[in-house]
Amino acid sequence: MKSSFLRRLINAPYLLWSVIFIIVPLVIVVYYALTDESGNYTLSYILNIGEYKEVFIRSLVYAVIATFITLIMSYPVAYYMSRSKVSTQKIMMLLVMLPMWMNLLIRTYSWTTILEKTGLINSFLGLFGIEPLKLIGTPGAVILGMVYNYIPYMILPIYTVMTKIDNSLLEAAEDLGSNGWAKLKRVILPLSFPGVISGITMVFVPSVSTFYISQKLGGAQTLMIGDIVQKRFDALSYNTGAALSLIMMVVILISLAIMNRFTDDDDGGIIL
Amino acid sequence: MKLFGKICSVLMFIFLYAPIAVMIFFSFNSSRSTYVFEGFSVKWYGELFNSSATLNALKNTFILAVFSALIATILGTLAAVGIFNMRSKIGKSAFMTVTNIPMMNPDVVTGVSMMLLFVFVGRLIGAQQYLSFYTILIAHITFNLPYVILNVLPKLRQTDKNLVEAAQDLGCTPHSAFYKVVLPNISSGIVSGFIMAFTLSLDDFVISYFTNGTGFQTLPLLIYNQTTKKTVKPDIYALSSVIFFAILILLIIVNLIQARSEMKLKKNAKAGFISKIAGKIGDWFDNKFETRAARVSVISFFLAVCIALSAFGINSLQNNQNDKYTELFNNLSGTYSTDYAGTELNVFNWGEYISDGDEGTLDVIDAFEHLTGIEVNYDNFDSNESMYSKLKSGAVSYDVVIPSDYMIERMKNENMLEKLDLNKISNFKYIDNKYKNLFYDENNEYSVAYNAGTVGLIYDSTLVNGEVDSWTIMWDEKYKDNILTFNNPRDCFAIAQFILGQNLNTEDKADWDAASDLLIEQNDILQGRVMDEVFNKMGGGNAAMAPYYAGDYFVMLESNPNLKFAYPKEGFNIFVDAFCVPNCVKNYEAALMFINFMCEPEVALANAEYICYTSPNTAVAENPDYSFYQDEILYPSDEVIKKAQYFHDFDPEVRKYYESLWEKILIS
Amino acid sequence: MGSLVLLNILQQFLLPQRGMHVMSKNENIVVELENIGISFDDEVILDDLCLSIKDGEFVTFLGPSGCGKTTTLRIIAGFTQPDTGEVIIDGNRMNGVPPYKRQVNTIFQRYALFPHLNVYENVAFGLRVNKVDKKEIDERVTAMLKSVNLSGFERRQVHSLSGGQQQRVAIARALVNNPKILLLDEPLGALDLKLRKDMQIELKNIQQQLGITFIFVTHDQEEALSMSDTVVVMNEGKIQQIGSPEDIYNEPKNAFVADFIGESNILDGIMREDKLVEMFGHKFECVDVGFEKNEPVDVVVRPEDIDVVSEGEGQLSGVVSSITFKGVHYEIIVDINNFKWMIQSTDSPAVGDRIGISIPPQDIHIMKKSEYSGMFGDYSTFSDEMELMNEVEDDGEDET
């Protein structure tokens, strides 16, 4: 039939594009991870990943902590936003989104101005004769950087879901005798769960794979897996780099799969 | 609950905007520091518009964003229509899964996988350079596509499918029904997809980092380079502040337009003052241009004019400085032809290793461009190894590179360098004989020395008591968390090797193991491993000591007068950086001309003043007006120099060995 | 509602062209469907359907959801191609001819007005596509909008109109193209009851004045009966009965039609001889002939045709199990030998009373046994609510 031919034709460019530039590159990552520099099959790069165990664990731990803090901070804000007047909601939305339009690098870098030994916080403390604190170069600073950069990704999905919670549901809950806490636990939390899950995904994935934040805000002991990948590729160790990327991808996929078990989202995975 | 939420929100916004406020505040700093505010000034904004690198990056970013968003929008819209019309459920979900991959995958993996694709294909077809504008464009289109599709698909789902039938019923062919009915109804999705793609492309750093080609620098890459290089000056804060306000204004306008169209729906609703004004303007606009098509074309025309104007503005800003080099050009000792005007020259140099017109200095690249008409693409690297990797990978191609001694040796041995026709570099005569025929290039066929340098220990006299004369102080627990060290293997190992009394170029694995153990010991008391970040750290008084290059000490001294410099008694590293032409050269004659220009007395002086390294150029060193004329640190006595050792190149086995040790030091 | 105004205008602008057409071609067959069959995903939607529609006729396809009525309409419009059979419009075979080449226009269930165009542009759409001269477009659209009482609404966005106004834009958009046949796919489904009644009259009047063929799809039997020249009752992809509204109501062909159109008590009976049927062991006089002796038949008695009499005076007697006031009459459910009859009467016996019923012979309608026999029980489970719920379900009708 003519129209089905046309229909196929319209898909062709994207099909071609996605195969060449999405599928094939991933296959090539696997290829590089499983071969040595002269192209012979080897498992040694994958097996050597054990050396990076600590970095992997550190990345996961930092990302989990950052995601958790982000969630705790975002939830009340998202709730407050969703229950505000429409005009207030709009302004708040704009304020939440605005920093996202700034470059991540610059947002991260400006924290050094605040956190450095001679930075704003320590200068302020110095006024009271307090010894400068070591703020920069600590795991805390790295986690702070992640929380700061990715918090809008947590607020927005939770807020979106919360605006869809009908006010009458909350009234019904009150009518049926729920106090504030019970209302939160039995109505708001379960209904906003999908938003929380996608927020967690959207914060966790970039956090665990970040490679600039720890370089700027961290110290010698806070390197993340993303930094190692970057360094490996800069040093042209494609095979190690590919192996690390592959493992990172698998780790993230597993984490997402675990998270997906909590949602019965049949819309083809978690998107936004 | 409400009050709690309110407090949280207020705290959240303080948190979100504190760094931005700080950034804007410090963009008005009159000093070069991003830590210490010394006075109000708008000079960094002036710098911004004088910096051709920044304007170029701005132009590149826009070109990339416009093209990638445009292509992604067209492809993505077609794809969305295709996916929407697909009958088979399996096919549909397969498509959606593939579409989700670039969104769910970490950016690093996406960037790396695309880079590997280009490298793989490049090697397969034997291309000279793998990465170019087109590779970064492809990468941007690829990560933009899912966002376009996910914006258009819901609009298609919302479109009543009877509309298409209605159009056909009224005489449209399926084709024209698509244009007349479907397209207008999904246009808002297409537009928001485009805007999203545009902003994502504008903002992307990670994927660009892995896929950008020679000489194509975008704003995020520029910012990355600036925040990892030498002194971070408030000019990037100025740049970011400009961007911030531009976006703020844009968002406000967009919101006003939205508010107006909502007001139109409920005409009687109470409207605020601003939305009333917006409404008035909008009504005028609507009356003037009645049909939607007219409105769309007016807006797109307006946008096109804006883009054209800004491009024109950038170009004229770059070009209106034609006569400022007259004096320089009159004093040139070499001869320069304009035969290569219009060609491109790709230069790969260390970060901030050339006088760039900053604060009234000579803009060497710009002057060269004006002199010869050659367009120079200038890129930075931050270590010999990364420069070597890039060239070796074939991912990029350069005409002039500036490696250090041992790296020149390696590249020469690997046939990666072209011989230089010294007859065409007449200014070679100015190079001090001390810097000719050195171990890395015994017959001086491949290199022309640019700068020499030494490594010493820089320390803050307010944090370290007494004179320092030994590297061992870097292992002193007293200075825990106040010690910085190199973030590259050879410089870092060298310190341990001097303490252990080894030869820097030892091939004995036991020596390396010993040095490695010593370095691991140091890990616990280190504040960090840094390269050019050291300028801010030491200049800001944020660390007590750091080993670094002698010349850079003077730059740090400007921001922190308490700094002192020492040549430790155990010995220290000396190095020479020299101009070379790699064998992937495309513009050999222009490369020689550039090297000759760099050795011009006036140009070399400008560079020496800017970089503060030891100049091998006699015309500089013997010039009494030179700020470092007979300086003890830059031009140390022969007695001191005795203790210095050069790095030599290694057998790949040894290199691999110490690199694997380095890897362990980093992650232990 | 301004239907009078509407009519005047229609006469003024459209009738001169159409009037002659109606007279000369009145008896011609304009649409012919021959042995149409179609199935989606192995499910038979239409099964060997044959139908002829005369020029100028108001034909209604009536049936429950999923009966294939909308599919039939879409086959005529050209949106769906039948697997088998012939579609002939105006004497030409139309199989495979795309909708935009057919002189047929459709009014869609939810109007399908183009949301990106204003009222004027919506109506002008078909003319613009057919490259009609600009000046003529303006004349015709303006006249059309005036005739549907929407002058002054030209620049309005369609989503800012009320349901009735949108309906009229849809009508204008279709009629401005002077179609030979107008297809209407449940066009009144989204309107409220009052508006719906008005539009029924209005549509019927437009059709009568223009004289073009209207093919109307509905699941509302009252709508079908009150508007149509011919009603086509469909179920499970088959035509159950074609006839005038009176025929369909009074002489249903089988139990399905009898049940679907109006309220009916459908009983098992045995035809003892011509004009004599036996139910519940009791012989009733009737008017039907032509059945075999002792043939089992379905007997239909409409609830309004049953007279309530004192116990013993009627042909049958039973106990009143419920009574509901309906305004014009009472609806009485009477249990007679465990069969619950529905009776509509102005009498109001009390629940538990024993009453007699009597049925005049001309009100007993005998049907041959069919596949639907025995499917429609008595009124023991009947409730108004049930019927209401069914109607709501029907609204999301025939999406295939």
CATH homologous superfamily classification of chain A: MetI-like
CATH-scheme architecture of the largest domain in chain C: 3-Layer(aba) Sandwich
Topology-level CATH name of the largest domain in chain C: Rossmann fold
What portion of residues of chain A is helical?
Answer: over 70%
* CATH uppermost class of the largest domain in chain C: Alpha Beta
Task: Name the descriptors.
heterotrimer; A: 272 residues; mainly alpha; MetI-like fold; globular; C: 400 residues; alpha+beta; Rossmann fold; 2 domains; 10 helices; elongated
Tell me what you see in this structure:
The complex is a heterotrimer of chains A (272), B (668) and C (400). Chain A has one domain: Orthogonal Bundle (MetI-like fold). Chain A is built from twelve helices and no strands. Chain B has 668 residues and is an alpha/beta fold. In chain B, strand 1, helix 15 and strand 2 form a beta-alpha-beta unit. Chain B is globular. Chain C has ten helices and 20 strands.
Short description:
Chain A has a single domain, classed as MetI-like fold, CATH 1.10.3720.10. In chain A, 74% of the residues lie in helices and 0% in strands. Chain A contains 12 helices and no strands.
SSE layout and pairing:
The complex is a heterotrimer of chains A (272), B (668) and C (400).
Chain A: H1 2-33, H2 44-47, H3 53-82, H4 86-97, H5 104-115, H6 120-127, H7 139-163, H8 167-175, H9 180-209, H10 213-217, H11 225-234, H12 238-260
Helix pairs in contact in A: 1-12, 3-7, 3-9, 5-7, 7-9, 8-9, 9-12, 11-12
Chain B: H1 2-26, H2 43-50, H3 52-85, H4 89-104, H5 107-125, H6 133-158, H7 161-169, H8 174-203, H9 206-211, H10 219-228, H11 235-265, H12 273-288, H13 292-319, H14 326-330, E1 344-350, H15 364-372, E2 375-381, H16 384-393, E3 400-401, H17 405-413, E4 417-418, E5 448-460, E6 483-486, H18 489-499, H19 509-522, E7 526-530, H20 534-539, E8 545-549, H21 550-559, E9 563-566, E10 572-579, E11 581-582, H22 588-598, H23 601-611, H24 618-621, H25 638-641, E12 644-646, H26 652-667
Parallel strand pairs in B: 1-2, 1-3, 6-7, 10-12
Antiparallel strand pairs in B: 4-11, 5-8, 5-9, 5-10
Chain C: H1 3-25, E1 29-40, E2 43-54, E3 58-62, H2 69-77, E4 84-89, E5 92-93, E6 104-107, H3 119-129, H4 134-147, H5 163-175, E7 181-185, H6 193-210, E8 213-218, H7 221-227, E9 230-235, E10 238-243, H8 245-250, H9 255-260, E11 265-273, E12 276-279, E13 282-285, E14 295-301, E15 307-310, E16 316-325, E17 330-336, E18 339-345, E19 354-358, E20 365-368, H10 384-395
Parallel strand pairs in C: 3-8, 3-9, 6-7, 7-8
Antiparallel strand pairs in C: 1-2, 1-4, 4-5, 9-10, 11-12, 11-14, 12-13, 14-20, 15-19, 16-17, 16-19, 17-18
Helix pairs in contact in C: 1-4, 1-6, 3-4, 3-5, 4-5
